[in-house]
Amino acid sequence: MLPANQKTNGRPKSGGGRRPLSYKMVEDELALLDKSINEFWNKFKSSVSDTSCQMMALRDSYKDINKAFTEKLSVKLKEEERMVQMFLEYQNEICRQNKLIQEKKDKLLKLTVEVKDKKQELEVLAANIQDLKEEYARKKETISTAKKASEERLKRLQKSVDLYKERLGLEIRKIYGDKLQFIFTNIDPKHPDSPFMFCLHLNEARDYEVSDSAPQLECLAEFQENVRKTKNFSAFLANVRKAFSTMD
Predict the structure, then answer these.
(1) Which of 50, 3, 54 shows the shortest CA–CA distance to 30?
(2) Structural domain of 208
(3) pTM of the model
(4) Residues facing residue 208 across a β-bridge
(5) What CATH number is associated with residue 214?
(6) pLDDT digit string (tens) for the chain, length 248 residues
(7) Residue 8 lies inside a defined structural domain of this protein
């Protein structure tokens, strides 16, 4: 913009060197306008300069804030990654523990079944043992009864032995195989000490069984059958002695 003193160059001048009043007013207004424009321009430049400084300050502040935020975000992301890793590790550990627990449950179930089977086997075994005990008790009672019967029979035999030994010259000896040997004397008048003998024992059926007579008696089997039926042992001995005495 031109200075005020140069705005009149090239313009026609009026006579006597004086300008009209209207033209003066225009120049004054233009001068005021020029001043206003200069003031506005100066203020605008100052404002733009201040705004630029503020923008620079805001930019620097933004950079600092962005850097701090980025650092915090990076730390946060790392922390979250660590937490995720820990969660995955915990999850894997839980899976492993659950697998171990399931294996132990399976083993426990198997052991429970085995214990149940063993318990049933023990119950069966206990029942078998009880049956064996009862059977043993019955057999023991049977043996005891048979033993008592045998003892009673031996007592009777001993009485008969004593009687026949005194009256008939009978001697009874126990020999091999739980056999009893009956020896008669005083049968042959010419030879009173000559022995006449036979053997006797009880078989598995607890019946009398006669054998090994000397001299040999053909009727010994008949006498054996009779004594088994009658249980009269005294008559049996009398018949045997009589058979010996009638031999030639």
Answers:
(1) 3
(2) 169-245
(3) 0.38
(4) 202
(5) 3.30.457.50
(6) 444 444 444 444 444 445 556 777 888 888 888 888 888 888 887 777 777 787 787 788 878 888 888 888 889 889 888 989 999 998 999 999 999 999 999 999 998 899 989 899 999 999 999 999 999 999 888 888 888 887 887 788 777 767 767 776 788 888 887 889 999 988 888 888 899 999 999 888 888 999 889 999 889 999 999 999 998 988 998 899 999 988 86
(7) no
